[in-house]
Amino acid sequence: MKKIILGIAVSLLLISSVSAQVLKKMGVNNTLWSGAGLPTGKCGDSDRPDFRWVGLIDTFQARADIKQFTVDGMLAWGALTNWTKDHVEDFTIVNTDLQQFRFMNEHVYSNSYYLNFLVHPFEGFDAGFGTKLSWSVGPSPSKDGQAWDYTAHVIQGDFATGSDNRGMLPAKNVVAGYVRYANNYASKAIGVRYKYKDIFHIGAAIPDGFNTDRPAANFGGSVQPVDFLLIAAAYEGAFIDNGNVYTGATIKLSDSFIIDGYFAYDGIGQKAESPNVIWGTGGGVYIKFEKINLAIRPEAGFSAYRHGDYTNAFYTGGRVQWDITKELHLGCWASGAWGAEYTKWHDKDYWDYERTKNWTGGFIFNIRPDIAFDINEKHTIAVTTEYESIIYPDSTSRDKMLVGFFWRYKSF
User: Fold this and answer.
1) pLDDT of residue 125
2) Nearest 5°: phi and psi at 9?
3) Rounded Cα distance, 180 and 254, in Å
4) Fewer Cβ neighbours under 10 Å: the N or C end of the chain?
5) Is residue 164 within 8 Å of 263, Cβ to Cβ?
C-alpha cells in the first residue's frame, strides 16, 4: 500500500485530475468496520446509555474500466443496534447510510450507495451521470478520506448549520459557522468535463432536482499556468436564487511544502437578512519532514454571515501523520471551532435578554488518533479513537467518544 502521506499530498495537488472517481483505479475496495462508544450526552446523565458495542458496517466499492467506459459503485450494509437507556436492542440488518465514524450523531449521514456511469470518447474528455461523481477543482477544507475510511474526520471543526423554531441562526442547540465550499461541482448529477494535459480543466453539470421551471447548473474549472501554481473556481446553482461561488489556489513550493487557500460565498441571490447568506475563507499548509517521515497539515478558517446580527465564526485544526515504518502509520486529527453569536442575545431590549445575555457562540473540540498497519499490499487493519466535546451557546455541554476497528482490502 502506498504510504498514507503520499495519498494526502496527491489529494491536495491533483484534485482536478480527470481520474477523480471515488475509486481512482479499476478494482475493488472493501472496508469492514466495528465500533463501540458513548453516544452524545451529558456526563453523568442517568438517561445516557453505557459504553457499548454498536455493531458492524461493511462498505464495498468496485470500479470497472471497459474500453471507453467506466462503471463504479458502492454499497454499505450493517448489523446495528439502537442506543437505549436500559439495554441493547436486537441487531438489525440494514442497508445503512450512517457514517461509522459518526454513528452517535443521528443528524450526520452519508450515502448508503453510489453508482456512476462514464464514457471517455477521447483523451481528456469525460461525460456521464451518477449519484457521487466527486468531480472537484482546487483545494478546500481538509476531508482526508471518504466517510468509511479510517482517515476520515470532522470538517471545518464540525461546524453545523441549523436554526431554532423562529428561523434564527445561530440557535441555542447549534454551534454555527459551516460554509459550503462548492468546489465539488458535480456530485449527484449529469456532467461533462475536459482536461488538457496538466494545463487546464473545465467542467459543467446539471444537478439532481433540475426542472424547467427552476433550471440549475454547476460549473467548475482550474488552470495551472506553471508547475507550482494551480488556480480554480466553481459556481453551484447558476440560474437560481441560491447560488454558491468558490475560488481556490494551491502553491507548491516543493514536494514537502504546499500552501492552499480558498474562499466561498453561499446564498447568492437571497436577501441579506437570510441566515443562509454566509461567506468564508481559509487555508492550510502541508509540511513534510522527509528524514523522519513526519508530515503535518494545519489549517484555519473563518466564516461571516451577511446578516449584521450574527458575529463571525472561527475554526482551526490539523492532521499529523508519522510513518514509523513502511507498514506502520500513526496519525491524529484535532480541531477547535468557535461558533457565531446572535448579537441580540446581549441586547437589553431583546425580548428574552435575561435568559440569553450570557450566551456565546459555543465551542467544539474534536480529537481523533488512529494507527494503521499494512499486513501486505492488499490488506490493512486500523484502530481509531474519537472524542468530541461540545459547549452549546446556552452553556449546555455534551460529549461523546468512540473506538473503531477497520479492516480494509483492496485489489489494486
Assistant:
1) 96
2) -65, -40
3) 29
4) C
5) no
129, 189 in Cβ contact below 8 A? Answer: yes
Q: For position 21, what pLDDT does the model report? A: 60
CA dist 220 and 222 (Å) reads 7
Is there a contact between 93 and 79 (Cβ–Cβ < 8 Å)?
A: yes
Higher pLDDT, 221 or 308: 221
CB 269 within 8 A of CB 277: no
Beta strands in 348-378 (DSSP E): 363-374
Q: Are 96 and 74 in contact (CB under 8 A)?
A: no
Burial class (CB in 10 A: 0-12, 13-18, 19+), 65: middle
Q: 178 or 102: whose pLDDT is higher?
A: 178
- Max CA separation in the chain (angstroms): 69
Arithmetic mean of pLDDT over the chain: 87
User: Across residues 194-208, what is the average pLDDT?
Assistant: 94
- Whether this prediction's pTM lies above 0.90 is answered by no
Q: Is the peptide bond before 298 cis (omega within 30 degrees of 0)?
A: no
In whole angstroms, what is the distance from residue 335 CA to residue 159 CA?
11
Closest by CA position to 55, among listed 38, 86, 34, 76:
34
3-state helix, strand, coil in the chain (%, to 5): 5, 50, 40
The number of C-alpha atoms within 13 Å of 297 and in the hemisphere containing its C-beta is 27
For residue range 27-77, what is the model confidence (pLDDT) as tens digits? 999 999 999 888 777 877 777 777 778 788 999 999 999 999 999 999 999
Query: CA–CA distance from 93 to each of 77, 81, 96, 101, 368 (Å)?
Result: 7, 9, 9, 18, 28
Instruction: Assess contact for 113 and 131: CB atoms under 8 A.
Output: yes
Segment 72-84 shows an average pLDDT of 82
H or E, element range at 12: helix 4-13
